[in-house]
Amino acid sequence: MKEGTPYWDRFAAYLSGDLSDAEREEVDLWIKSSPERQKEFEEARQIWQNSGIRLEMRDADTVEEWGKLQSRISENPPESDTVQVTGNYSLWFKIAAGVVILAVALFILWPVEKMIDIHAKGEVVKVYLPDSSKIWLNVGSTLSYPEDFGVENRRVTLSGEGYFIVQPDSLKPFIIKASLAYARVLGTSFNVKEDSAGVVLTVAEGKVSFSSVKSKNKQKVVVTAKEKAVVTSDEGPVKSPNSDAGFAAWRERNNAAYDHEKNNPKEYLVSRYSWEKNKINMSVIDGRLANKADLAIYTDIVLNATYTKPNGKTSTTTFTLTDKLMPGETLNYQKRLLDIFTDTQKVTVEIVSARTVSSADL
């Protein structure tokens, strides 16, 4: 829940009704994460109510409040040795006492989380979160998440642009906060881009709930594959079809890991195959190629099929698979060899080369 201010600051804003629906939902999720948290919340609520005050705690400072109180007393010293706290003095004592009580209580009940900040400076950075969710950060972007991420909740803050592949967890929704918007998901793949104009969410797979952080905007939209939504400072979210197939192609630029995948396809293409003679004594290869790369899309995959004859001599056939093999996907193929008149002893299949296709060209 930390976003640059103490937790009791946000908590006080919650109790005073000074949060948007999206922000209140985020606090509610934290409270409901455990019975112990719910109990602590009720205790804190009672402290707030019993303090006899209703303050906007955006920039509350207990030292400053005590200073104001002392200054007020110094300007109007009591006329006798017996001090009677009445009128404005009583109000100031209530304010100062309430602030101190709330600050101490929430310091105990709601300790400050330790945050982990990841910055992508001169190149794209790939991040694995503790729940195995995978994120790419564009150049100049920052991702922040609590040190105990995944224990009770899954919340991150994004500044800039990131592509997310979120691991499913129905009990702990994955929540992303950008400057103007919230994205809430269970498990899917999508891109979030933040710039001076607003925040753009583009979904590759699954669905994402998207909303504005502005308190006056109550609207939420559910964005699915091949759709996008935009939130600006003036309106949103507004949903529309996505016609840009290369919306996440930025991951291929300024990315040393992608360059290695592109230049070394044999390291990322895994071949499995078997062979047998058919009814006319022809060797038939049943093969399966898997793409283990994170980003590289391979096509024009060249393979050599070599069979060994009884006398030890070999013969090689070269063939090409022109399908596009996406990261994480597999491709089945079959190849027949011209060894009808040979009692083939052995067959091997080797990957020779492959060409990489940019996602922007799909």
TrEMBL record:
Membrane-spanning parts: 91-112
Domain FecR protein, residue spans: 121-208
InterPro entries registered for this protein in UniProt: FecR, Ferrdict_sens_TM
Keyword annotations of the record: Membrane, Transmembrane, Transmembrane helix
Recorded coiled-coil stretches: none
Protein's name in the database: FecR protein domain-containing protein
Protein species of origin: Fulvivirga kasyanovii
